Amino acid sequence: MAASTPAVSRVAPRRGVALRETKFDRRLAKILVHAIEVFYEKGYEGASMRHLSRSSGMSLAGMYYYFESKEKLLYLIQKHTFATIVERLRERLKDVSDPEQRIRVFILNHLEYFLANQKAMKVLSHEDDVLKNSYGAEIRAIKREYYRICVELMDALKADRGIEFNSRIAVLSLYGMMNWIYTWYNPRVDADAKELALQMGDIFLRGVGSGRYGKHAAKKRSVN
Amino acid sequence: MAASTPAVSRVAPRRGVALRETKFDRRLAKILVHAIEVFYEKGYEGASMRHLSRSSGMSLAGMYYYFESKEKLLYLIQKHTFATIVERLRERLKDVSDPEQRIRVFILNHLEYFLANQKAMKVLSHEDDVLKNSYGAEIRAIKREYYRICVELMDALKADRGIEFNSRIAVLSLYGMMNWIYTWYNPRVDADAKELALQMGDIFLRGVGSGRYGKHAAKKRSVN
Amino acid sequence: MAASTPAVSRVAPRRGVALRETKFDRRLAKILVHAIEVFYEKGYEGASMRHLSRSSGMSLAGMYYYFESKEKLLYLIQKHTFATIVERLRERLKDVSDPEQRIRVFILNHLEYFLANQKAMKVLSHEDDVLKNSYGAEIRAIKREYYRICVELMDALKADRGIEFNSRIAVLSLYGMMNWIYTWYNPRVDADAKELALQMGDIFLRGVGSGRYGKHAAKKRSVN
Amino acid sequence: MAASTPAVSRVAPRRGVALRETKFDRRLAKILVHAIEVFYEKGYEGASMRHLSRSSGMSLAGMYYYFESKEKLLYLIQKHTFATIVERLRERLKDVSDPEQRIRVFILNHLEYFLANQKAMKVLSHEDDVLKNSYGAEIRAIKREYYRICVELMDALKADRGIEFNSRIAVLSLYGMMNWIYTWYNPRVDADAKELALQMGDIFLRGVGSGRYGKHAAKKRSVN
DNA sequence: TATGAATGAGTGTTCATTCAT
DNA sequence: TATGAATGAACACTCATTCAT
Q: pLDDT by residue (tens digit) across A9-38?
């Protein structure tokens, strides 16, 4: 899948050649793909530059021609992954106006990308807080943006249905549901992204669905 | 809180009498508390024995009198944390028979423990797959057990209500919702465990709540 | 010579035992002696911790038990060397009151120590500006102190003889004369410290010696 | 100043005509100027080819078109600097015959060049012993030559005045005085080359000036 | 019961240099 | 005439762990 091959912005100054993908870019992308694999397997801290170098078939020193540091490597992966998911979401959201459908689009987009790029997504989710300084700030900015979009989706739903719930908790719960996947998803036993999106969408949308508690409204809700 | 102080099983042969908590146990527990702090802050791979020794005030070599390895340290933390949460769940479940209430108990138990032991719970969740071999096997066994309990709770609910949904997805989604909180929970802005359990319980229970889709049943559920 | 064996203050916290020189101190001193040798031979930048470790017979990692960094190693050497030379100077100056004799004492003290500890003195002189931050500040403080002492000696001489010359240039010229010897001194062809001190003392003292230019006063001094 | 721009002998085979300064030479000279700056700032060992390339704006690989190695670069700098100072000295010495004046010319020449090319002169003085093999041998040859000239100047002075002193110590002391400048000279507080040459010339010439010890001859010279 | 002393293997990163183009 | 791409060796330093005491 093309989108999972990071077409990262160059690390070293280059003389342009605008549209054509350069050899440098291709090599860099290849390394990133291997790095995702290794980070996925061992975690960021657990993965050494030597592991990364071995896995990508490039010399240890050679890596540094493409990346100035291990941190930058993670940053590039996270940035590309996150930016892509947001970009695609925006694209898909354009065509849909119904508030509930928009949330379903959000869920489907997230899960489809997640399952198609499971490893990168684990690296994004799991190494959430390792990037510091400016790299970290940039990633956190995208994260905030993604969060904002989802909160707006929630607010629209609330307005549309005339219901009330805590958007923050709702959004964060939804994220949890979806992001946790990387800990359990097994393509041989679990449904595909579409079906999963349907099920999680049902749970979530029905869950926040109305101010009343439906037919079980009378039930005791709290546990002493 | 007593339960959050790990009364870990001994590591080295002991000459002590059975029931009395020995000095060894107390020191060991103290080290574990500090280790949780450091693992929480730096992650398992990022935390070095030197960090752990510094933080607990014990000499580097001294640590090895209490633990045979860094891995064992993580194992002890995860084992104790997980075992405690399961133990408490069983306790609480004894008094409740209504299927929905039992699930609410499950959620409350999880969240209460999670928030009261946030750091340990992050260490449990985040370092999910670092333990290999027998240590890992043991932790995975508890995990399976915890999972089984929750699946049974779901099955009981389905039987009771005469509804149908995928228990696996439901359980795992619920886990995701709950475990994800270590990435976002902020005691200054977010509600306490009880309230959170209520809200997540609502979302989840209402979400899986009925075979029908309530008043919005006619809505298009799938996204192209 | 005892004084050339650095009895450095400990690097790691120790429980005192005040007066007795500990095993730690002895090992540390031994390493310092080897380090001086290597720094002398290769320069600070050119000497690697591997060289130092090889030369002292201690494992690379072992070195870091005694010193927290290569910089600290240099600092310890420079501090001890410089502090000792100043200390000895003060001692010797106590017994002498005649201004000229005091300068001769200064020169002799410097040269004697220089030749007895030629390698350490080269490391002190040649690696003058590599230490930054607090280490460097401390060394520079001692240097300023040493300089001050010498300036005072000059001022006393001027007052005593009723002559005038630029103390700064005089002191710095004298330093140059003396410190430069590490570039050329050859014990097989050059005189010992006492004789050298006599000769340099003559050149210097006679050189600044009187306001008049002696019998050659009429000579043209400047070069177009 | 033309003379401070190293018109170095070419490194690579040239097809060019003899007398005209080629583009190659000019580029090479430009690199040398930048290299002096970097060696001055970081020292030879501390300066990397990357630093040098960055500072001169030429690609890392490009440097090797002009220089076959980092060592050669230092050699070129030292050779040119040293050769120029000797050449100029010879020039100036031609017009002067009085022994004392000749020494004053020597001092002035040295100091003027030193201060006008302070950075290059530090690189010459400070990296005195890093060049090995044939490069080093060549530099050492010039050094010996320069030393010989100065010794001859001293011998002429001794013959002229009928005095006796150790020429070796005298020359080397004079060198020390002068070369040490790079460690302390501050153009904002210190006099210019002419004045400095006067003062150092006075100290030195008066210092070696006569077999007798002038009016203080009776003074005790040695320090026990 | 605990630690000072020590280490081999590994960390991320930079080095001077090469070579095809 | 110059450089992009690449590398083996080295860099300072930290790792988890051991063992005599």
A: 434 444 444 556 788 999 999 999 999 999
Taking the CA of residue C53 and the C1' sugar atom of nucleotide E5, their distance in angstroms comes to 16
Least CB–CB distance from D177: residue in C96, C177, C222: C177
Would you state the pLDDT for residue B137?
Answer: 96
Please list every residue in chain C whose beta carbon sits closer than 8 Å to the beta carbon of residue D48.
Answer: none
Using the predicted structure, report yes or no on whether residue B15 has a pLDDT greater than 90: no
Residues 6+ apart with CB under 8 A from A136: A129, A130
* Residue located via tokens 């429980």: C15
In this prediction, residues B79-98 reach a mean pLDDT of 96
| Optimal mutation site among A41, A101, A173, interface B, most CBs of chain B within 10 A | A173
pLDDT band at C224 (very low <50, low <70, confident <90, very high): low
Distance between CA atoms of B119 and D155, rounded to whole angstroms? Answer: 83
**C to D CB pairs, distance under 8 Å:** 137
Residue (of C80, C85, C75, C84) closest to C133 by Cα position: C75
Those residues of chain D that have pLDDT short of 70 are 1-19, 210-224
In angstroms, the CA C206 to CA D210 distance is 9
* Across all strands, nucleotide nearest D45 (CA–C1'): E15
